[in-house]
Amino acid sequence: MHIGKYYEPDTGGIESVTRTLATGAADAGCRVSVVCFAGHGSCQGVEVRNGVTVYRETVMATVASQPVGLAYLQRCRMLVREADIVHLHAPNLLGMLGVCLGGSHRRLLVHWHSDIVGKGLLGHLVRPLERLVLRSAAIIVATSRPYAEASPTLAAHRRKVVVVPIGIAPPPAESAQVPLPVALSGRIRGRRIVLAVGRLVPYKGLDVLIRAAHRLPSDSVVIIVGHGPLAHALQSLIVTERLEDRVILAGVLGKSDLHALFHRATLLCAPSRSRAEAFGVVLAEAMAYGVPVVATDIPGSGVPWVNQHDISGINVSVDDPEALAQACSALLTSHALQQRLSAGARRRYLDEFDERRFLQRMQDVYASLQPDQDTSVPL
Fold first, then answer.
1. How far is CA 225 from the centre of its chain?
2. Which residue spans of the chain are classified as CATH 3.40.50.2000?
3. What's the mean pLDDT in 97-105?
4. In terms of C-beta density within 10 A (0-12 exposed, 13-18 middle, 19 or more buried), how is residue 309 classed?
5. DSSP letters of 129-146?
6. pTM value?
7. What percent of the chain shows pLDDT beyond 70?
8. What is the structure's pLDDT at 253?
9. CA 286, CA 170: separation in Å to the nearest integer?
10. pLDDT for position 65
11. Side by side, which strands form the sheet with 313-316?
């Protein structure tokens, strides 16, 4: 049983991980369920997707990015009691509460995608619930060693932590032939693409990328894919900076359109500014296409580990539009550098972030959750 905030067709890094693990377990012959909220691209109800039973519950309110709903809690409480393994994707306040309401579970796996960062009073109020759930967990999965070692929340639970980097499915072979959407192609006009993909929220640092766009070569264009509460503010910044022709907010795109953009992008830019960006699933996605990455050297985050500097891309300081522009421009103006880092990005994907490797690692973790085995795994 997976407990998450959302599930496909709703998009996001954690949603991608949940889908990969749920469908992988279903393909291996397990009976798999997911409890989540109905989000941007889905409706309340029960359905079976690729062998996974998905229970979507209505969002009554959203508080500090946390969806809230009583039906979600009730569903969690009921299914936790029936599940052989409970796989909780955190941070998720209601998911943690749902696990507690379902009673103690000897095979609870907490997938620690990120600490709660920048939530003020709410973050402090959640701490006791976090500690309770982490004490109850048999295993805690962290997505990178640097993040696990820097996390103050995980410090008291190191003996339970196992590091499993996130894996990504390779792009379909036929996706290279998918054309760009006509409307988007008309705005790009053959220019080289600096691609950014993610939720339009403060910690993603997309305002820094917009401010950097002035300094990029004139034959390039920035495409930002995603939705979120900052959409209006970012569009206003684009207008204020007179960048309507240089920066395009593309909104939410379908899978085929994203394939087309990744195949045509010169680089992926991920200017996140805080440890709320713990891993950066989109970085691994770009590497699967052989697209080099310009990211930020966030202290205590897994991002600089995912994007190996001068191997798969370039890491720059946080909140520095000039440094970001210089790194992007280096890739846009040097074919040799772009080719070298493109090859390095593809190798890094195959070495660390291949989906089959990820599923095998997680199957080993599930296997360790047998009743009579010691589930403590050293960091």
1. 14
2. 2-167+355-367, 173-353
3. 85
4. middle
5. HHHHHHHH-SEEEES-HH
6. 0.90
7. 96
8. 92
9. 10
10. 78
11. 247-251, 220-225, 192-197, 265-270, 293-296, 313-316
**Residues 69 and 44 sit within 8 Å (Cβ to Cβ):** no
What whole-number distance in Å separates Cα of residue 271 and Cα of residue 266? 16
* CA 79 distance to own-chain centroid: 25
Q: Which CATH superfamily is domain 173-353 in?
A: Glycogen Phosphorylase B; (3.40.50.2000)
SS3 112: strand
- DSSP character at residue 349: I
Token pair 């085929």 is found at: 256
Residue 127: its pLDDT value, please?
A: 85
Pick the CATH number of 2-167+355-367 from 3.40.50.2300, 2.30.180.10, 3.40.640.10, 3.40.50.2000: 3.40.50.2000
Token pair in block for residue 193: 């693409």
Q: Are 346 and 290 in contact (CB under 8 A)?
A: yes
Mean pLDDT of 42-54: 95
* HSE toward the beta carbon, residue 104, CA cutoff 13 A: 5
Residue 185 one-letter amino acid: S
**What H or E segment, with its residue span, contains residue 186?**
helix 182-188
Which helix (H) or strand (E) element contains residue 94? helix 93-101
| In the block, residue with structure tokens 């996390």 | 151
| pLDDT of 123 above 70 | no
Using pLDDT thresholds of 50, 70 and 90, give the confidence band for residue 125: confident
Written as six digits, the tokens of 68 are: 């809230």
Per-residue tokens: 146: 């640097």
Average pLDDT, integer, range 214-234: 97
Mean pLDDT score of the chain: 93
Characterize the bridge pairing of strands 161-163 and 247-251. Answer: unpaired
What's phi and psi for 269, nearest 5 deg? -115, 125
